[in-house]
TrEMBL record:
GO terms for biological process: lipid biosynthetic process. Keywords: Hydrolase. GO terms for molecular function: hydrolase activity. InterPro entries: AB_hydrolase_fold (IPR029058), TEII (IPR012223), TesA-like (IPR020802), Thioesterase (IPR001031). This is Putative thioesterase. Belongs to the thioesterase family. Coiled coil: none annotated. The keyword Magnesium does not apply.
């Protein structure tokens, strides 16, 4: 029988914000550029008893502040995938990957590596980002601090109280600039193609992704691909969090129904 107690620990760089010791499936959450695992704290708290939400903690922030950031986005994904496959706490749970903005391509690259290792995720849900092959090049990471702050205001990627606090924003800028570098220099390399079903979410007023760029996600998988539009801009998630959490929970539960793992009884 699967030992639920052994899953009370973190998995490498993934943070258990609200443990679900009797979870039958899990959702792995990948933050946007400049974001951290704590962005998803409310999501994890809202998860039902049988689905556990874990959030990736990228290097260079919060409890990983001193960890070096890889030169390429693929390096971030490779380290996260290694944490998931190099495990000593029992068989893998059915797993759904979700990523928003930069997190969408980190989740995608992680899914590719899990697939290559023989442990493909049961579903990939991506949000607010063009298909990998359509990733927009950019030079924001090369601009001045003032230009970078203006970009953050435009995309509403950072709360205004942080942007208006000179001391606080100076502490965040190196992290944000580094993430822009990862995003703007990212190019998908030939390699593993997914068989996992993909769901694409985006806001109908999001300037960072157009409908045709969302359609491009169909090219990354041999599985089904579904598109869903929400009212809102790049951070439509703020208004539609409960709907997205329910969608992820449904995907995870569907996967657990066909799992061969023997589960303990509900508490």
């Amino acid at each position: 029988m699967f030992d639920a107690v052994s899953r009370d620990r973190h998995i490498g760089a993934f943070r258990r914000l609200t443990p679900r010791p009797y979870a039958r499936a899990r959702v792995l959450l990948f933050p946007h550029g400049g974001g951290s695992a704590s962005y998803y704290r409310a999501w994890a708290a809202a998860a039902p008893w049988d689905v556990e939400f874990l959030a990736a903690q990228y290097p260079g922030r919060e409890d990983r502040y001193s960890d070096p950031v890889p030169a390429k986005l693929q390096g971030v994904a490779a380290a996260l995938a290694a944490d998931l496959t190099d495990r000593a706490d029992g068989p893998p749970l059915p797993t759904v990957l979700f990523g928003h903005s930069m997190g969408a391509v980190v989740a995608y690259e992680t899914a590719r590596r899990l697939t290559a290792a023989g442990e493909p995720p049961t579903a990939l849900v991506v949000s607010g980002h063009p298909a990998p092959q359509l990733t927009r090049p950019g030079r924001v990471h090369l601009g001045s601090d003032e230009e970078l702050i203006e970009e953050l205001r435009r995309t509403e990627a950072t709360h205004r109280d942080i942007l208006d606090n000179a001391a606080l924003i100076q502490a965040f800028l190196p992290i944000i600039r580094g993430d822009y570098r990862l995003s703007e220099t990212y190019r998908p390399a030939p390699g593993t193609r997914l068989s996992t079903p993909v769901t694409v979410l985006y806001g109908d007023r999001d300037p960072e992704i157009h409908a045709w760029e969302a359609e491009g996600w169909r090219e990354v998988t041999d599985g089904a691909c579904e598109l869903r539009t929400f009212e809102g801009g790049h951070f439509y998630l703020e208004e539609h969090r409960d709907v997205v959490v329910d969608l992820l929970t449904t995907r995870a539960r569907k996967a657990s129904e066909t799992s061969a793992i023997s589960w303990p009884s509900a508490p």
